Structure formats: structure tokens, C-alpha cells
Amino acid sequence: MVPAWLWLLCFSILQAVLEAQLAELSVEVPENYGGNFPLYLMKLLLPREGAEGQIVLSGHSGKADEGPFAMDPDSGFLLVTRALDREEKAEYQLQVTLETEDGRVLWGPQPVLVHVKDENDQASGHQATATVEVSIVESTWASLEPIHLAENLRVLYPHHIAQVHWRGSDVHYHLESHPLGPFDVDAEGNLYVTRELDREVQAEYLLQVRAQNSRGEDYTVPLELHVLVMDENDNPPVCPPRGPAVSIPELSPPGTEVTRLSAEDADAPSSPNSHIVYQLLSPEPEDSVERRAFQVETTSGSVTLGGLPLRAGQDILLLVLAMDLAGAEGGLSSTCEVEVTVTDINDHAPEFTTSQIGPISLPEDVEPGTLVATLTATDADLEPAFRLMDFAIERVDMEGTFGLDWEPDSGHVQLRLCKNLSYEAAPSHEVVVVVRSVAELLGPGPGPGATATVTVLVERVIPPPKLDQESYEASVPISAPTGSLLLTVQPSDPMSRPLRFSLVNDSEGWLCIEKVSGKVRIAQSLQGAQPGDIYTVFVEAQDADEPRLSTSAPLVIHFLKAPPAPALTPAPVPSRYLCTPRQDHGVIVSGPSEDPDLASGHSPYSFALGPNPTVQRDWRLQTLNGSHAYLTLALHWVEPREYIVPVVVSHNAQMWQLRVQVIVCRCNVEGQCMRKVGRMKGMPTKLSAVGILVGTLVAIGIFLILIFTHWTLSRKKDLDQPADSVPLKATI
């Protein structure tokens, strides 16, 4: 069960929360206000998230009747739009909420009670009534104090203000006013004012009352009464009309005068009713002077800048309250408006968006006028005239290699090449471009961002390689063996830079080219080729140091009918040996020495390994000259034994097959072959030697076992014999 004190505590907290939420604000408005409208009444403390919603003003309990009231959405002030009459309605109940567009309440409702202040427009106001009685023995009127009448009295007229009396029976009263005013007197000596008085029209009247008999003769000199019209402070201060916006330059120092307000009050100039003081309403003043953007001098109405800096482009509406009676309670007021525009000054130096550009590579043969780079600069000033920029190359370019091109109203500048480049003269350039404001800069000087460095690298231009022929042709029999040399591709200048060769479009894979020497050979059997067919590939040559520099030439292969198989006349090749693992020596293979063409200096022999894949894997054949080739091992290790290596020798459409006998063996440190020898007669084999050794060891073991057994049995027999049976030893 919940204790009673806990219920009371929860109830009191809930009640306090509800009372805090429904706390009502109140404000007073003088009736028949004659000042400027709208009249700002009070500022509501809206939450900071007010920018997300809209301020809604309604009548009591959310009704739509808000009367002659409105809300300023920018400043949060509650204002009245016309004069109010207490006799018509004495108070207004309003409520203010902050809502979203879909009607969701973000804050509120905040109730506000507006009281219409009674100005006593139905009472007699300040007035004076005088009754004059003069003794009969006196011949003159008694002197009277001045009569004070309030201006603009809202009473029934004629209104009684004084009474005079001359003792006697035959007395008639006659009234004269200087200047002529709304006054009258009746037969009983009662003085009346017949209408409202206005101090601005006439502040003082002199009344003369004559006491006469029936014949129109004065009993005595006229009675003089002074009537003073009292100022009732019925004229609120009148603000000067809102003129054009006042321009204040950005970065103006604190204390700079923005404007000077001079409100006018139609009340008596020397009375407190016309004593006007000023108070800043919006922007709402801060406690600290350094945090104020504006401040108002109370008596003079001078609006000056505070310590809070302003930003260029701001449009600010100042609301200044002008109050008479020196701001005392009961005085009238008007709200003066001053529009202030913060104008821009040239206080921002232009800066480049990027301070380092490049490196940018340009070939030394690039044409002058080529665009090198485009630089972009920005200026934070708002005035277009202050954003005009001037560009220049900071470091003196004596040769005028580079130049700048830009539009006057653009923040983009183009760096262009003006002269030819030379790698030998200058392999690189650093161009420093500086930007300045065309107008005079009033703020801080240019910072590091006012310069940009463009790094240009000059690329050396190397002519592309050139071959000794524009195209190549070769004829080959379809029976040509693998490895046959077709031709050699060479540069046109033997002293030129080294080239690297490759074949392009070799769809059948019949050909291959040595990367360095440029020799074109048959890579595999020409299977599928027919006599009369033409096979075209391209030879591509690239610069060894600059691969981007290359050239190509077509290579046309004409396939010929296979010649009749010539009789192979293998030359005698003596048996030779090679070491495994492989060492740096091989076997020299020579062509037939009796060939007359070779002796006469005609075309050389062509050497190639046989078509067997195993042979081509295990062996390598390198041509030494036109008559000899060098045969070596291709693998690091091959099985030691005797090999027959087929070598095909071709010359002028004739072919020979050499069977080179090579013995592969293990070698000693001196490179001499260690041959495997056979078993000598009469010498035991390994198996027989092992058998003899094992048999000998077994025989020795059996002999040792017999000796040990015999010794054991003898010892046991001696232990079992009785003591008396032991023979006595003879003593000699």
C-alpha cells in the first residue's frame, strides 16, 4: 500500500508543474494612445528552437480572436496595432504558442493578460472653481489667484469653472476675454467654459468681469481673472519618419555614431511632459558593453556602435523607445525604427585555393601557347569592385618563358608557355604566381595564400627508333626445322640506343624473335602451312631505356614447297663429355668442312636442335660463327650417362643431321670426368664380402658361448663335492 505522504508529495509536484506551465504574463496599455503604431508592448522569451516553428497568437483558450494585437516573428515582441478604449473593453486575454506547419505545439501556450489603463477621460479633470464675494463698502474687486484648467477635458459643456458676486439688487454681469476664448457668465455670476481648451492653441486667457446696473454703468472697475491652461501630457513623442537605411562600413570602431534620433513632443516645451528619453529595444542590449552591437545615449538619442563587431551584408532594424516624462511611470512613448546596413570594405586579401600545383611534365618540343595550368583565387569581400584581382609572376622570368592570361572580373588565371623549352638549359621550372587586390586593401596584408607555386618538369624528347628496313620478307620451306634462322632485324644506325624486339600478330605461334639480337627463327613445326601461303606478322622495336618510344615493321613470310630430302651426310663428331652438375664448358659442333660454298664465303650454316621436346628441354645450342655451334646443358642436373644429341645443320636449302655423342658424368674439382669402372675378376662382390664378415662373427660368437658354458659347469661341480673328499695337501 502506497503511503499517504507519497500521494501528497506527487500531487504537490504535479500542481507546481501545472502552475509553472500556466504562469500568466500581464502588461498595461494606455487607452486612447495617440502615438505611432504599432506600439511594442513586451518581449516574450521564446525558446532557441523558435526558428523551427511559427509564432501563433490567439484569444483565450486558443480561440482565433486575438483582437488588435500581433506578434513580431523576428524580435518576439507583442504589439498593438491601434488605439484601445477602456469603456469598450477593459482587458484582453491572449495566448502565444510556437507551432510547426502541421499544427504540432513546440512551446506554450503562454497566457498574456493585457489591461487597458484608464485615462480618466470621463472625469472633470484638473479644474478650479472660484467664488468671489466683495464687501459692499469696497469699491474694487478683491484680487484672485489664477484659475488652472486642464486642456482637452472630456466633460459636458458648458462646464462651470468659477462664480463671482457683487452685492446689490440691480446687478448685471458682463464678460470679456482677451484673447477671445470659449468662456461665458450668467446672471448669477457663474463663469463657464463652453468647449475643450488646447494649450498648443492658447496657454493663457485674461477674463474681465464687469458688474453693471440696468443702465449699463459699471459699479466698479472690471474684475480680472487669469485662466491658465494646464498641459495634460496628451501628446506622445513623435518619432522622425523612417528614412533610407543608414550605411555603416564594416570594421568601424566602437563609438561610431550611426544616427541621432530627435523625437518631438507637442506638449509644453518646458514641462516634464516634453522631456524625452530613449531606450534601445532591439537588438536586445546585453549587460556587457563588449557584447553590444549598438547602444543609445539616453538623453541625446545618439545611436552608436558597441564592442560587438558587425559583418558586411547585415541588414539590422533598430527599435528605439522614445518616452516622455523622462521615462517615469505614466508617460507616453513611441517606437522609432532605424534601418542599418553594414557595407563592405576591402578588408580581405585574395588567396589561391591551392598553394602547390604540380609537378607538371611538358616535353621540350611542346608548342608555345600551350596551357600549363589553371589557378583559382577567391576573395571573401562582398562588393564586386573589391573582388577584382591582379595576377603576376613574382620571380623575374628574364627569358619570358611563361605568361599569365585572365579576365578582369574572374578569379581564374591561366599559366601558358610563351617560349620553347630546353631540357639541357633547364630541366625544371618553379613559377611563383602572386595575386593582389586591384582596390586598396584596408585590412591585414596578404597572407601565405596569396602565392601559388607551379612546378614544371621538362621531358627530354628522344626520336623514335628506326629499323634498317621499312618492311621485311623471307621465304621458308614448310619443312624447315624448329630453330631455323629466317633473318635478323637491326636498327638503321648501329650506334643508336639499344632496342628490344618482339613479334605482334603471330597468331599461329610459328615464329620467335630474340629480344636483344633481333634474330627471327622458326619456333615450332610449320604444321598447317601450305606452299604459296603468305604469313604476315609485325616486328615491334622499343627503346630499351624509354619503352614508350617504339616502331614497327611488317614481316612477310612466303612458304615454299619442301625440297626433296637430301642425303644426310653427318660429319664425324667424336665422343665428348660434360659435367653434371653443370659447369661452364660445352661441346663445339662444326658443320661439314668439305662444303665448297662455305669455303668460298657464301652464306653460313644454320644449326638447330632436333624436334624432340626432351632434347630441346635438356640441351642448348648457340651459334658461334658461320661454321660452328656450341652445345651445353640446359638443366643444372641430368642423369650421368651417354647421350646422342641430334643437331640439324642447314645451308642453302640443304640439311644435315649430326648425331653428337655426349657423355655426362660426375667430375672432380679439377673438372675431370670420373668414369664408372666394372668389377675385377677374382675380387669379391659387396654381397659376398658382407656374407663372409657375418659368418666370421657368428663362428666367433658360438665359440665364446661354448667356453662360457664349460666354465659354468665346472664351477658348479666343485661346489657340490663334500669337505672330506677334498684331498689333503702334502707338506714337505
Automatic annotation (TrEMBL):
The keyword Transmembrane helix appears for this protein: yes
Pfam families named among the record's database cross-references: Cadherin
Signal sequence region: 1-20
Residues spanning the membrane: 687-708
GO molecular function annotation: beta-catenin binding; cadherin binding; calcium ion binding
GO cellular component terms listed in the entry, alphabetical order: adherens junction; catenin complex
Domain Cadherin per the UniProt entry, residue ranges: 21-92, 88-239, 240-352, 354-467, 468-568
Gene3D superfamilies attached to this UniProt entry: Cadherins (2.60.40.60)
Protein's name in the database: Cadherin 16
